[in-house]
TrEMBL record, chain A:
Protein species of origin: Streptomyces bugieae
Any Pfam family: cobW
Name this polypeptide is given: Hydrogenase nickel incorporation protein HypB
Record key words, sorted: GTP-binding, Hydrolase, Metal-binding, Nickel, Nucleotide-binding, Zinc
InterPro entries: CobW/HypB/UreG_nucleotide-bd, Hyd_mat_HypB, P-loop_NTPase
Every CobW/HypB/UreG nucleotide-binding domain range: 35-194
Location of the region described as Disordered in the Swiss-Prot/TrEMBL record: 229-257
Automatic annotation (TrEMBL), chain B:
Residues bound to Ni(2+): 2
Lineage, highest ranks first: Bacteria, Bacillati, Actinomycetota, Actinomycetes, Kitasatosporales
Domain of life the protein comes from: Bacteria
Protein name (database record): Hydrogenase maturation factor HypA
Originating organism: Streptomyces bugieae
Family matches, as Pfam families: HypA
Amino acid sequence: MCRVVDLQQAVLAKNDACAHTLREDLAARGTALVNLLSSPGSGKTALLERELTLARDRGVPVAALTADLATENDAVRLARSGVPVKQILTDGLCHLEAEMLGGHLHDWLPAEARLLFIENVGNLVCPASYDLGETLRVVLASVTEGEDKPLKYPTAFGLAHLVVVTKTDIAEAVSFDEEEFRANVERVNPGVEVHLTSVRQGIGEGVLLDRALAARDGAPVHIPVMTRTSHHVHDESEPQPQDEHSADLDTVASSRS
Amino acid sequence: MHEMSIALAVVDQVDGAARPAGATAVRSVRLQVGELAGVVPDALTFSFQLACAGTVLEGAELDIEPVPARARCGACARTWLPGMPPRLTCPGCGGTDTELLSGRELQIVRVCWHDTAPHPPISQEC
């Protein structure tokens, strides 16, 4: 006999439950987690090394964990800051998951750490779907990546609590249009703050550390529209007659493979 | 591509519900995938077939129900289809107090299986 069973379970329920537990466990020991997401090569490691060094200089206890498919190069770079650092090798996996992260923190995370920075795998697609128990999710984009990056990766930028632009020292050389970038961020994540940084020129120094400490101490964190989901039952999931279509950006034909 | 991880999570959850209920073979799984869920249906279908191998879901069909994104403005109550890439500021008043009515779903809604158990949690028979 064939039976039809209504399961009604979120696919990522297990990850979300692990993330929730991790967030609570960390909060109980006074640690807030900061999840850094970006494309490969956008400058996560350089920015993080600067902010970790600043934390050490200010006497703020922090720790960092960096994830890559291969090599311990990033951990070596981050360790120059003098704060506790750990490398996760994902063996080809394109993102971190909460349960995996929890296993790596066990017996390693220093008790006094007020902030734990996670440098996620360089990828703007997959890591966006996985809550790691973060208090602050920061999405970075370098000026070389194009002003339309937020439109190309709307889930990643749409779920950010904070957006950071890196490498602004070369913005002029690559004709980076800051206004257009900001407008594109606003389109997918209205109200989110965008900060400009350059490690080489010292621009935006401390922005990551200060925002993370504020969030840890209970300052309000931006709530992205994509997380402000309706509690209505999905009797409205089909397009309604009164719905308007977003009509722009339709001048070039495209198709989904 | 994280669709394989998503597929494994689907198989894990369906297996966890089906086997204790006495299922001998899962025939189909219906999944809601929101337009803004960040999941590619074709890649998920491909991964699902691989993830099912050697489980009670072997050979099961994945039936994906796409859910379009819909948004409503908190200021002027206008509703709109944000599209892709999504426009989440109000196209009418320009407001940013937007509520997402749908589009982030990634939900197992229904499973059809063969079983031998006398009293599984049945919603209906087919």
